[in-house]
DNA sequence: CGGTATATATACCCCTGAGTAACCTGACGC
DNA sequence: GCGTCAGGTTACTCAGGGGTATATATACCG
């Protein structure tokens, strides 16, 4: 038994911040496992190793708890992607690094992704709004990339009009591929990211002509 | 008051098939509105204009009811897309007509789409499996299209390897764009379908070069 | 060493909603 | 007319689980 485990077992009284983290971690796990409604606060408390009134005392109601899970995981995801992007390189390389960061996050935090993507949208307006905001954020980032690249080549209005829709499609494709990944786990984040680059940067037409996109 | 309305009001006793349809319609509406768990059988019975025991007598438990909703709507969607595709034209045109049929269906059956896409996946394995099967069906159709087009141009193994992933991404993009549409309703199915064609058939790179895909 | 605030647990309340028992009623065959 | 069966309802049971009142233990401060 390591010293830290001894520590954890002996000193039962822990500072609030630690307990809150434990509870949120447990909540994400449980919500990912069952979904919001079937998940019981009893199970959360059990997984967290803490009694139920603690949860209510620290994090509030079940809705509050869920909301804080979503917010925390959304921020983590944003942070992971944001730090993965190098804003000083070409548009396609920015997309590439962003995608790799995204799939890297999903690989490391499956439960977070499940809660964000599959559960939060289904529960109610309030929670869906959080995820929609996250998605809008992603779409906006991609839109900027596409529009600036398009207008750099002199396609002002055309790019403005369809840029957001195209970006929504790309972001959706990335999310869908993350889900699909759960059924095909023997692939690396890089492979997924490169498929998306090939599909959306080059398109089927170029692909069937034998063209392939690769990082420069 | 028309005669049929009189009919509907007076003759309270209706054949089983009619009631079952009323109940399923109501269930889809209610499940789309609240999601599976918060939806109550009482509300379904109220919307259906039928008392609760009828539902249990005709369609079984809440789970049974939900499952039958999913199955019915999934079959409707498949049918709508399948009949929308002309298998005798070029690959890109098949994709184009299929996408238009898909968005046409979503436009006409918003509640069906919500239940299938946002709710069914979140409730549990059993239901997710139904939707996954539906999605796999779609992915398979696209994969065939892509692989046959790719191998026609002599790209056998490469297309085989990544074809399914690329198709999953395309199908996911189509689904995501359908969701995005709910927030931007003033667009036609054709516009959405053409964005997807431009993005996935041509790709960003061709687009920013000024190329555009259009139906032949 | 008391006293107080904080950390934590036990045991309970009570509402919501799935599922059902028991009962009604009109139509149709004989 | 009258049994009988499908169509239909009202009014109930009962478990699960969100949320809390109450009690207890431990650290820290003077």
Automatic annotation (TrEMBL), chains A, B:
Keywords: DNA-binding, Transcription, Transcription regulation. It holds the Pfam family TetR_C_46. Gene3D superfamilies: Tetracycline Repressor, domain 2. Residues 40-59 bind DNA. Residues 17-77 form the HTH tetR-type domain. It comes from the Bacteria. It comes from Prauserella halophila. Transmembrane segments: none annotated. InterPro entries: DesT_TetR_C, Homeodomain-like_sf, HTH-type_TetR-like_transc_reg, HTH_TetR, Tet_transcr_reg_TetR-rel_C_sf. The keyword Transcription regulation applies. The keyword Zinc does not apply. PANTHER family: HTH-TYPE TRANSCRIPTIONAL REGULATOR RUTR (PTHR30055), POSSIBLE TRANSCRIPTIONAL REGULATORY PROTEIN (PROBABLY TETR-FAMILY) (PTHR30055:SF158). This is TetR/AcrR family transcriptional regulator.
């Amino acid at each position: 038994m390591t010293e830290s485990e001894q520590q954890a077992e002996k000193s039962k009284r822990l500072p609030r911040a630690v307990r809150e983290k434990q509870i949120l971690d447990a909540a994400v796990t449980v919500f990912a496992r069952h979904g919001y409604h079937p998940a019981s606060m009893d199970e959360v408390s059990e997984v967290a190793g803490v009694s139920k009134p603690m949860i209510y005392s620290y994090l509030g109601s079940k809705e509050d708890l869920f909301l804080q899970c979503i917010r925390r995981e959304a921020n983590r995801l944003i942070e992971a992607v944001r730090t993965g992007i190098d804003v000083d390189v070409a548009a396609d390389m920015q997309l590439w690094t962003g995608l790799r960061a995204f799939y890297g996050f999903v690989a490391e935090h499956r439960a977070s992704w499940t809660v964000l993507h599959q559960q939060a949208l289904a529960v109610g307006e309030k929670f869906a709004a959080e995820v929609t905001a996250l998605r809008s954020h992603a779409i906006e980032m991609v839109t900027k990339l596409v529009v600036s690249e398009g207008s750099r080549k002199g396609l002002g209005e055309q790019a403005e009009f369809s840029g957001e829709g195209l970006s929504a499609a790309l972001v959706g494709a990335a999310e869908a591929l993350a889900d699909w990944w759960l059924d095909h786990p023997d692939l690396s984040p890089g492979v997924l990211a490169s498929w998306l680059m090939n599909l959306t940067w080059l398109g089927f037409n170029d692909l069937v002509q034998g063209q392939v996109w690769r990082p420069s």
